[in-house]
C-alpha cells in the first residue's frame, strides 16, 4: 500500500513513461547561498548531489514548507525539479479549483502539479530556467527551454514570466500568434472558478488551469488532451 506525505498519496510503483506525455522541469542557473533550508532539506533538486538517482525527494524552497517532488538526475544538466507531469491516460481531470492549483495535487510518481504558490516561492529564491518536454503518440519527443522561468505571487494572479527560447518544439509560448491562442508569456493563471484570460469565455472551464490568453497555443493541463501547436 502507498503512504501519505503532505496530503498526497504515493504508490510504490516505478515511474511510467507513457505515450502522449508532458513534463515541466526547472533548473537553478545561479549559485545558491548555501544548499539547504530548515531541517537541512535542499532548496531544489539542483542542490542534491549530482550522482544521486532520479526519484522522489523532499525539498524546501525559501519560505515554503517541505515539498515532495520528483527530481530528474538523468537529463542533461541534472538536478531538474519536476513541477508538472501529465500523461494521455491520466486519472487527473485537471479541472481543479483555484485553491487546489495553488497548493498542488496528484502523485509525483505519475501525474501531478506542484502548486502555484510553491512555484512562486521556488522561482523567487534564485534564477531558474524551464524545460517543457512533450512526447506525442508516435513517441516523438520535442522540448522547449526558456532561460528564465518565474511565477509571480497570488495577488498578481500568478502570471508567467519566460526568458529566451531554445528548442525543437516551436516557440508558441513567448511569440504572439493572432490566429491561434495569442500568447502565454505574461498571462495570469486561470481556473474554472477564477477567469483571468483574455477570451470572451473561460478557457479553463473547458480544459484545466493554465496561463491562457485567447485561449491557447500550448496546453499541457487537460485530461487526455496535450496540445502544442504545430506538433502535438
Number of helices: 2
Helix content: under 10%
The first-to-last residue Cα distance is: 35 Å
* Oligomeric organization of the protein chains: single chain
Largest sheet: 9 strands, antiparallel
Set out the fold topology.
Elements: E1 3-5, E2 8-10, E3 21-28, E4 55-59, E5 67-72, E6 80-87, H1 98-103, E7 105-106, E8 112-113, H2 116-123, E9 128-135, E10 141-146, E11 149-151, E12 160-162, E13 165-167, E14 218-219, E15 227-228
Antiparallel strand pairs: 1-2, 3-6, 3-9, 4-5, 5-6, 6-8, 7-8, 9-10, 10-13, 11-12, 14-15
Description of the structure:
The chain has helices spanning 98-103, 116-123; strands at 3-5, 8-10, 21-28, 55-59, 67-72, 80-87, 105-106, 112-113, 128-135, 141-146, 149-151, 160-162, 165-167, 218-219, 227-228. With 232 residues, it is mainly beta. It has a domain at 19-170 and 185-190: Gamma Fibrinogen, Chain A, domain 1 (Alpha-Beta Complex), CATH 3.90.215.10. Strands 3, 4, 5, 6, 7, 8, 9, 10 and 13 form a nine-stranded antiparallel sheet that branches. The chain has a two-stranded antiparallel ribbon with strand order 1-2. It is globular, with a radius of gyration of 17 Å. The termini are far apart.
Amino acid at each position: 500500500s502507498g503512504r501519505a506525505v503532505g496530503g498526497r498519496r504515493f504508490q510504490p510503483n516505478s515511474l511510467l513513461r507513457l505515450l502522449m506525455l508532458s513534463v515541466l522541469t526547472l533548473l537553478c542557473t545561479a549559485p545558491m547561498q548555501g544548499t539547504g533550508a530548515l531541517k537541512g532539506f535542499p532548496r531544489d533538486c539542483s542542490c542534491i548531489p549530482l550522482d544521486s538517482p532520479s526519484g522522489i525527494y523532499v525539498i524546501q524552497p525559501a519560505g515554503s514548507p517541505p515539498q515532495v517532488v520528483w527530481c530528474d538526475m538523468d537529463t542533461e544538466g541534472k538536478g531538474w525539479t519536476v513541477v508538472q507531469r501529465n500523461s494521455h491516460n491520466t486519472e487527473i481531470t485537471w479541472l481543479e479549483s483555484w485553491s487546489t492549483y495553488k497548493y498542488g495535487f496528484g502523485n509525483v510518481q505519475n501525474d501531478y502539479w506542484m502548486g502555484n504558490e510553491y512555484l512562486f516561492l521556488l522561482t523567487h529564491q534564485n534564477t531558474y530556467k524551464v524545460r517543457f518536454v512533450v512526447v506525442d503518440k508516435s513517441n516523438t519527443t520535442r522540448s522547449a527551454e526558456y532561460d528564465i522561468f518565474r511565477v509571480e505571487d497570488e495577488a498578481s494572479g500568478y502570471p508567467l514570466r519566460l526568458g529566451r527560447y531554445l528548442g525543437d518544439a516551436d516557440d508558441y509560448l513567448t511569440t504572439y500568434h493572432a490566429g491561434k491562442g495569442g500568447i502565454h508569456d505574461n498571462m495570469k493563471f486561470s481556473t474554472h472558478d477564477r477567469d483571468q484570460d483574455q477570451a470572451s469565455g473561460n478557457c479553463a472551464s473547458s480544459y484545466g488551469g493554465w496561463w491562457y490568453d485567447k485561449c491557447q497555443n500550448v496546453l499541457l493541463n487537460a485530461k487526455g488532451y496535450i496540445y502544442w501547436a504545430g506538433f502535438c
